[in-house]
Design a protein that fits this description.
Layout (H helix, E strand, L loop, with lengths): L5 E2 L10 E3 L9 E5 L1 H7 L6 H8 L13 E3 L3 E3 L2 E3 L9 E6 L6 E7 L14 E2 H16 L6 E12 L8 E10 L5 H9 L3 H15 L9 H23 L1 E2 L21 E2 L23 H15 L6 H8 L2 H17 L6 H18 L3 H7 L7 H5 L4 H4 L5 H7 L25 H14 L3 H16 L5
Antiparallel strand pairs: 1-7, 2-4, 3-10, 5-6, 7-8, 8-11, 9-11, 10-11, 12-13
Helix pairs in contact: 3-16, 4-7, 6-7, 6-8, 6-9, 9-10, 10-14
Length: 469
Amino acid sequence: MSELRPQRRHEQLGDAFFDRVAPADFPQTILRHRDRRWADRLGLGGLSETEWVAHFGRFTPLPGSLSEPLALRYHGHQFRSYNPELGDGRGFLFAQCLDPVDGRLLDFGTKGSGKTPWSRGGDGRLTLKGGVREVLATEMLEAMGVYTSKSFALVETGEQLWRGDEPSPTRSAVLTRLSHSHIRIGTFQRLAYLEDEENLGRLVDYCIQTYYPALASAEDKASSLLEAVVRNVARLGAQWIAAGFVHGVLNTDNINITGESFDYGPWRFLPHYDPDFTAAYFDDTGLYAFGRQPDTLAWNLTRLAECLLPLSSIERLEPALNRVWPAFREQLPRQILRRLGLVPLGVEADGAFVTALFGFLNSSKAPYEQFFFDWRGGPLSAARAARSPAADHYATEAFRPVADLLEAYAPAPNLNLDHAYFSRARPRTMLIEEVEAIWAPIASGDDWSFLASTLSEISQMRDAYGIKP
C-alpha cells in the first residue's frame, strides 16, 4: 500500500455536510469481486484477500485516509417529488485517494454497509443480487466508453434479507464503488432548502477547487460551475443513448456534479431502439424511459440552477443552464461516431447521419448493440456486416440512407478491427434475460463461473474498443 496517495479532503467541508458513522458488523465476509486493474493503478494491487476483506468488508480505515466513515447529507427529487429526508441511508464515504496517473480525487463509497441516521427505517443492506447487477452494469458501461463509477469490491456478508421485489429471504452483500465524486445535485438542494447560504458558498468553492480547478479565477463562480456541470451531464446523457442504456432512477440525488454515471438499481440495456423502454417496474408513467433521459437530466440541472440563485443571478445562470441542449446535440453524434470508430465530419453532416441512423433503428427494430458491433469502421466492416445475424436488416431500402452516409466517414486511428472480439458473430450484450441467467447458478448452486466468464468477455470487449482505466 506504499503507493496509495490517501486523502481526507471531504472533511474540509465541515460537519454540516455529513455524519460520522460505524459500519455494520457482518456475520460473514466472502470476497466475491475485486477490480484488480484499478487496484493496481491506485497502489492497492498488493493487498491479500484477507486485507481486501478487512478494508472493504469490515472497513478498517485505509492508512492516511478517513479515520471513520462519513454518511453524506443530501435531499432530492424522487420521481419529481421533493424529499427532504434523504441522505446516505445504506452507504457512506469510506476513503479518498488521489489517482497517481491524472492526480484527480477519487472516492471509495459504499452500498449496503449498514444503518445511518438517514436509513428511514430501512435495514441499510444490499442484496447480493443487487451487488452482482451493479458489477455487471459498471463493467459493461466502462467497456462501452461511458463515464461510470467502478465496482471496486463486492463482499458477501452472510445475512438473509427480505425484499418485496425478489424471492426472499435472499443473500446480502456490501459493495464499494470507486468514483470521482459523491457530491450530487441533491447536496446543493439540501442547503438551498435550509437557506444555508454560507455552506452553499463553501460547497461551490470546494467543488471548483476539487473538481473544476480551471474555474478558480471565474468572475461568477456559481454560474461557471453550473455551466461546467451542464456540459458534463449532457455528455453523460449522450453516452447513455449511444450505449442503449436506461439508468432507471434519475432522481436528483443520483446525478453527481462530475457527470459520472453511478448508483445502479433497476437498470437495463435496450434490445432494440425504443424511446419508451423503461427499466424500473415502478416507473408507471415512463418518466425515466430511454428516450426521456436527456429531458430528465435537463430538468435535474434546472433544479441545480435554482439552488445557485442566492450566489448569482438569473441573468448569469440562465445562459449557463441553456447550454444543456447545444451540449447534448454536440455530444450525441460524437458519442455515436466514437462507438462506431469513425472520425466526425462536422455538426451538420454528423447530425444528419444520427437522424438517419435512429430513423432506421426505429423502423427496423434491428438489435441495438449488434448494429454498433457490425458497423464499427463503417464501410470497412461491410463484408463483416453482410455475415451478421442482423444482415437482413442491412439489405433493406430502409438502411440505404445510413449506408450512403457511412461512405463519407473515415475510420478512427484506434479502430482495432483485427482484435479477436470482432471475429465474433454477435457482440457481448447485457439484456435482462442475460443478467438473470448469470445470477441463476449463483442463486441455485453458488456457482460463480458464469459471472467470471462473462466478466472475462467484457474485458475482451473493453480491450477491443481501446478503453483504458
